[in-house]
Amino acid sequence: MKKSGPILAALTMIALLFVAACSGVPSASDAGARAPVAPPGVPDSARHDDTGDEPSALDRDEGAHSAEEPSTFALDVDTASYGYARRALEEGRLPDPGQVRTEEFVNAFRQDYAEPEDDGFAVHIDGARMPDRRTALLRVGLQTREPDPSERRPVSLTFVVDVSGSMAEPGRLDLVRRALHTLVDQLVPGDQVSIVSFREEAQVIAETTAVTRRSELHEAIDRLNAGGSTNLADGLETGYRLAAGSFRQDATNRVVLLSDGLANTGDIAWQTILGRVSEHAGKKITLLCVGVGREYGDELMEQLADRGDGAAVYVSTEDDVRKAFTERLTTTLEVRARDAKAQVTFNPSAVESYALLGYENRALTSEDFRDDSKDGGEIGPGHSVTALYRVHLRPGADGRLATATVRWLDPDTRRPSEADRSVDVFALAPALWGSASVRLQVDAVAADFAEHLRGRWSGKSGTWSFGELIDQADRLAARTDDPAVTELATLLRSARDLG
């Protein structure tokens, strides 16, 4: 009788196994044998079994589109969103989710794309399957040729400087002065500069001045002092008028706005300001927006840059100033391609759906791609542009995966050109994430970080948790020895602790 307990238990287990086998439900031991083993280093949240039915990616992934629809967008090299988020996190606060743009986080990092041999674009496509095998991350990279300093055309710059009361905050106007001093020191004979300041109204501080009279320009910069309200519209209008009066056909003509973007006096209707900027951009006077300040009008500055055929950067440190106006001066100031657009078409027999990560403000219709009257993005020499796609593959996907095409106008003749490249499914890296391109992995972490900060990340559409993102960033920082990736890991920790 003492042995009846174990015997009964054994008989019960046999019966349960028999019932499970008949019903098709795997036992615990059987499930363990069938479960796929994820490669080393793959986070738990990414370990999925692709043997069962899954909901459509159109239901799972926010912003997903059918593979029948081409993805079309204007190119963008702005990085202001990442710069502002970095400052906020370093100060112990989370950035406003509305000021986080995924593509600007991705494009803030080095890509190492090969350059084209001519003045057009090199098109690169790579990607990797995620461990669930049905999802892939696709990277489309566009690269222009690095500038030859000896070939740089003269520049005619008009600085439009915000000297309103909000600029008196430490780290604003003093940083702007240093940026202007740095920029003036990098210019060469043949270049010319004008300076406009604005508060309640605009004032011309320096008429068009040859850079050979550098000391006069430095003295004018030192006279900039803050106070009063912010009439951004009058500042820009005066700056453009001055730029038009000193326009040079053989030069790069650019207005450089330095501001916190907080307009509160004069014509503050955005559409009116943006309309005026677009008019001047059509006359080959482009705009560079340099943002500063803890409180920052990010949305207005971004739209000004877009309408002004230019770019937006954010500076909060001396290192930011050095990179923008010393190391990357030619790239920052010159234009290699106007109205540049990208279109990515997917093969519906291999792809069920896709989601472009970011570029919401730059989206175009497929018909806009070859309509050269539709505004695109302005790209300088040595610029790279990256777009990431989360792609949901069909079972047994094979053959061509996608084709990426870039179209742009010559900055002088406005003659259109195109370049393209295709990629097949077999070219995707296997489901061993750590074997994918290191730069692709960094881009993926940066994109997921942005999605977290935007509050849009979920287990359905994202890839990693915050803890897993930190692990990924630490691993990549050790592999790349790239200070920007090390900084990314630090910012991830700050965001996790804050949120």
UniProtKB/TrEMBL annotation:
InterPro entries: CLCR, Uncharacterised_YfbK_N, VWF_A, vWFA_dom_sf, YfbK_C. Residues 29-72 are annotated as: Disordered. Residues 156-333 form the VWFA domain. Keywords: Signal. The keyword rRNA-binding does not apply. Residues 1-28 form the signal peptide. Pfam families: VWA (PF00092), vWF_A (PF12450), YfbK_C (PF12034). Residues 57-68 have a biased composition (Basic and acidic residues). The keyword Signal applies. Gene3D superfamilies: von Willebrand factor, type A domain. This is von Willebrand factor type A domain-containing protein. It comes from Microbispora hainanensis.
